[in-house]
What does this fold into?
Amino acid sequence: MADQINQAADLIKGSEKIVVFTGAGVSTESGIPDFRSPGGLWSKYDPEDFTFQRFVSNEKARHKYWQMSTEFYHSLQSAKPNAAHIAIVELETMGKLDCIITQNIDGLHQLAGASPERVIELHGTARAISCLSCKKRYDRDGVQERIAKGDKAPRCDDCNGLLKPATISFGQSMPERETAEAIKRSGGCDLFIVIGSSLVVQPAAYMPVVAKERGARLVIINREATPHDYMADLVIHGSAGSVLPEILAQVK
Ligand code: NAD
It folds into this structure.
């Protein structure tokens, strides 16, 4: 492992424009479960029940969605950025970070101190609610208060449209601006670091391929193997919260 830490540090030292790509694994050490690990959300819930099509077409599905989402939000309210989020901010402080592309909806990169304009949220944010019809945005806490008082699937005050967390569900289209920006930044970096992602969800999993094809070095830090390990210059199987601070200590 010490050898791999040194190799990662050398790659960072030799780079000027780094894109960090994060998935749910960067936040598990903050107490937010990922989807696919044992004990993750999909061991408790069936993903088929939470597609966008079910949400828009079925009131009972909306009740179930809000139940799951409320549970997720409660874990998020008490979550604090961990050592991995903080190490990524250090890359920004060093002037080496181009941007963070994240699949996460927890806002922990920004809470750790990353500049919001450098964080591309591919799957939206769970910290806001939006109306699917008129797009009005709501603060999440206010909507959660309505749920706590018994509203099982809240609707928009203005147009009576369906309210939904401002996240991208399975079956919902990806945000155009963020997706285009992420592809552009992935193609323009000199080092692409994946942290805590199973790299199985598209189009997110496509980003490291874009980076590699355009000549960037690729580092993958994840607890388990990913389908893209074979194309990486360096793979570290370990926990982000311990591996990243060690790498940053070497860089300094
Ligand atoms: P995933 O659940 O598919 O995979 C997470 C990966 O991280 C796994 O391969 C796991 O082995 C690894 N991992 C877990 N803890 C780790 C740690 N401490 N250090 C290193 N690796 C660790 O998650 P994904 O690939 O991000 O994608 C799926 C979807 O999950 C995304 O759409 C995202 O929106 C959503 N999601 C987000 C959050 C969040 O915002 N925190 C939480 C759950 C799910």
